[in-house]
Amino acid sequence: MTAPGAVTPPVFAAVLLLCAALTAWQLARRGRDVRRARFILAGSGPSGPWGPALPARIRAGADRVAEAAGRRRELLCLPVGCLIGWWGDSPLPLLVAVVAVPLVRRRLDARERRRARERRSEAVIELCGTVAGELRAGRQPGEAVRAFDGEAFGPAWAAVPAAARFGGDVPEALREAGRREGAEGLTGVAACWQVAVDGGAGLAAGLERVGQALSVERDQREELAAQLAGTRSTAVMLALLPAVALAMGTALGAEPLRVLLHTPAGLGCLALGGLLEGAGLAWTRRIVCAAAGGGEGA
What we know:
Layout: H1 9-42, H2 56-69, H3 77-88, H4 92-136, H5 141-146, H6 159-166, H7 170-177, H8 186-199, H9 203-251, H10 256-262, H11 264-291
Helix pairs in contact: 1-2, 1-3, 3-4, 4-9, 6-7, 7-8, 8-9, 9-11, 10-11
Keywords: Cell membrane, Membrane, Transmembrane, Transmembrane helix
Protein name: Type II secretion system protein GspF domain-containing protein
Subcellular location: Cell membrane
């Protein structure tokens, strides 16, 4: 006999099917967007998934469109919440999963921003090395900077080769492109360019020094990240211990989910444990951010 207020398994089955249908619809939409991007960007190129003669920039643009279309991983919280709720015969896990969707989305966005920042930082180092090499090979500064593919810097980079081609203010265009997070090294490139144009100093030597300094900073960040990897791993392991304990209790037949989700004492322990878990993760993240100089989170 079903207790008053309890949610029957057919209701969970319906909600689970709804979440599965939503996830399948998102995956189908992603595939449709990918096919549309390939069709639009590939045009009338040769046969094949991308076409062997398709320019690298267009291919990279199609990859970005496909990546943007597939950013729906946070919706996986819904079927997981449905499964746990069905298992524990309670709607509380599903409600928690619904609340967790925007939080997971925020976390994934922060990770994407961090990766984009790292790509821009690497692109600045590559710019310094490439342009310096082209200058030492005898090419003019404008030709050297126009030959560099600054796709990682975003739309702001388009003003740099345009200024170099038509005699515009290249240092100002570089500073404008360097306003994005991770591309701050372009301000040093702009200073070298301005000094080379105004005072006749060697641009190649200045760019090599800027690139070397940025490489040293990158190596220091990577070494610090390697040292903090142990702290992150420990925090993740400690955060997963309650789930492991619940799995062990279920395997032993203690039915911990039923106790946690259907008794006042269990609900109180669940709320207190969730608060302590969140406080512990926030505290660990604060420690890691302080050790990393505020540049990255746990």
